[in-house]
Amino acid sequence: MTTRTDTKEKILDLAEALMQEKGFGEFSYAHLSAELNIKNAAVHYHFPSKEDLGKAIIERAGQRFLDWCQQESMQQVTAKERLSAFMDVYYRQNLERGIRLCLVGSSAAAFPALPPGMQQEVLAMTSQILEWLARTLEEGRENWEFNFNGSARAMAGVFLSAISGALQLSRIGGESFYAATVQQLWNQLVVKT
Question: If the chain, 193 residues long, is cut into consecutive pieces of 10 residues, what is the mean pLDDT of each piece?
Fold first, then answer.
């Protein structure tokens, strides 16, 4: 028998996948209930409004990111290895799942149309990611792993924009477009030893 928690997680999983594939505005509760073979009322039970669902998707993704950052394995590697792992976990895997957009990119594209509560969650998650990237990039620069001009915060913005954009444009140019863009970014950033 499926528990309420299982149903809630299945709804979140499917809604997140649809958000990454099509965008937040491109699916409804009817899509979710039909795909999961549950009643529409079950979706409303867990998420009374679509804004509640959107906020839950972003909150869960933000918590996943924080949990990933705090893993002991991420604490014990170099900045270069952490940045490489970030690209693998949050971007490369999206390519392998049918070129899904990252939640930052998917949310950014639809940001003006997102409900206000969801916009706040997107801003909070994006800020967390940018802060982590800035710390990682600065640590890498201090340890001569990375070389870039300007502030680490500005470079974090460039980095996130480049990989999010590369993921979006890979829908047009294929996986090779993403790979070439990431390789060029890496070539510009990493100190050759």
Answer: 76 95 94 94 95 97 94 92 89 77 90 96 96 97 96 97 92 90 93 80
Query: 34: buried, middle or exposed (CB in 10 Å: 19+, 13-18, 0-12)?
Result: exposed
Residue 52: strand, helix, or coil: helix
CB 165 within 8 A of CB 173: no
Spatial distance between the Cα atoms of 22 and 82, rounded to a whole number of angstroms: 29
As a whole number of angstroms, the distance between CA 165 and CA 163 comes to: 5
CA dihedral 41, 43, 45, 49 (to 10 degrees): -110
Angle between helices 29-36 and 4-21 (to 10 degrees): 120
Q: What is the DSSP string of 66-118?
A: HHHHTSHHHHTS-HHHHHHHHHIIIIIHHHHTTSPPPHHHHHHHHGGGS-HHH
Q: What is the reported pTM? A: 0.91
| Superfamily in which the 58-189 domain is placed by CATH | Tetracycline Repressor, domain 2 (1.10.357.10)
Helix (H, G, I), strand (E, B) or coil at 146: strand
56 vs 183: CA distance, rounded Å = 34
DSSP code at position 25: G
Return the H-helix or E-strand segment holding 20: helix 4-21
Place of tokens 């990237």: 133
